[in-house]
Amino acid sequence: MNGHSGFEIAYVEAQWHSDILASGKEAFARRMQAKGMDESRIHYFTVPGAFEIPLFARRLAASGRYDAIVGAAFVVDGGIYRHDFVASTVVDALMRVQLDTNVPVFSMVLTPHHFHEHAAHLQFFKDHFPIKGGELAEACMQQLLSLQALDDYRVETLT
């Protein structure tokens, strides 16, 4: 980690509901750029679904190339499986990746209480994800800068 512009970020997104997720990803990128981050330092990856994000994130963290990893998915009730269990499992696994690898991992893995594939719901979430993408960028940059300050403090106190 070497300053705002020097951070390398991996952004991992599930393929499902990519039309909804796109607005969150775009808002994340815009906000990071507004904070001085070069867009070429945000690397985008796609995985089949939300369940695949944690393993992919773990491998990215193990590569040593990234200062932070973002996971993004929209997990909805398909009428058969318990979407809330899937979302919880994914978010828990992302937390484990972060704690096990010491690489910050951020989640925009969201699951609505109710979702129906009709125009009003689709538009609501397309309008909502840019808000979440901006919040995600804020959290990501704040945490990276806090960790950088902590690392700098440790170096100063040890020398």
TrEMBL record:
Q: Does the keyword Protease apply?
A: no
Which sites are catalytic? 82 (proton donor)
* GO MF annotation list: 6,7-dimethyl-8-ribityllumazine synthase activity
Q: Does the keyword Transferase apply?
A: yes
- Write out the residues that bind 5-amino-6-(D-ribitylamino)uracil: 16, 50-52, 74-76, 107
NCBIfam families tied to this protein:
PRK12419.1
Q: What is this protein called?
A: 6,7-dimethyl-8-ribityllumazine synthase
UniProt-listed SUPFAM superfamilies: Lumazine synthase
Family note: Belongs to the DMRL synthase family.
Enzyme Commission number, as recorded? 2.5.1.78
Q: What does this protein do?
A: Catalyzes the formation of 6,7-dimethyl-8-ribityllumazine by condensation of 5-amino-6-(D-ribitylamino)uracil with 3,4-dihydroxy-2-butanone 4-phosphate. This is the penultimate step in the biosynthesis of riboflavin.
Q: Matching PANTHER family, A to Z?
A: 6,7-DIMETHYL-8-RIBITYLLUMAZINE SYNTHASE (PTHR21058:SF0), 6,7-DIMETHYL-8-RIBITYLLUMAZINE SYNTHASE DMRL SYNTHASE LUMAZINE SYNTHASE (PTHR21058)
Class of this enzyme: transferase
Positions binding (2S)-2-hydroxy-3-oxobutyl phosphate in this chain are 121
State the UniProt keywords alphabetically.
Answer: Riboflavin biosynthesis, Transferase
Substrates-to-products reaction catalysed: (2S)-2-hydroxy-3-oxobutyl phosphate + 5-amino-6-(D-ribitylamino)uracil = 6,7-dimethyl-8-(1-D-ribityl)lumazine + phosphate + 2 H2O + H(+)
**Domain of life the protein comes from:** Bacteria
Per the record, its GO cellular-component terms are: cytosol; riboflavin synthase complex
GO biological process: any one? Answer: riboflavin biosynthetic process
Its pathway is: Cofactor biosynthesis; riboflavin biosynthesis; riboflavin from 2-hydroxy-3-oxobutyl phosphate and 5-amino-6-(D-ribitylamino)uracil: step 1/2
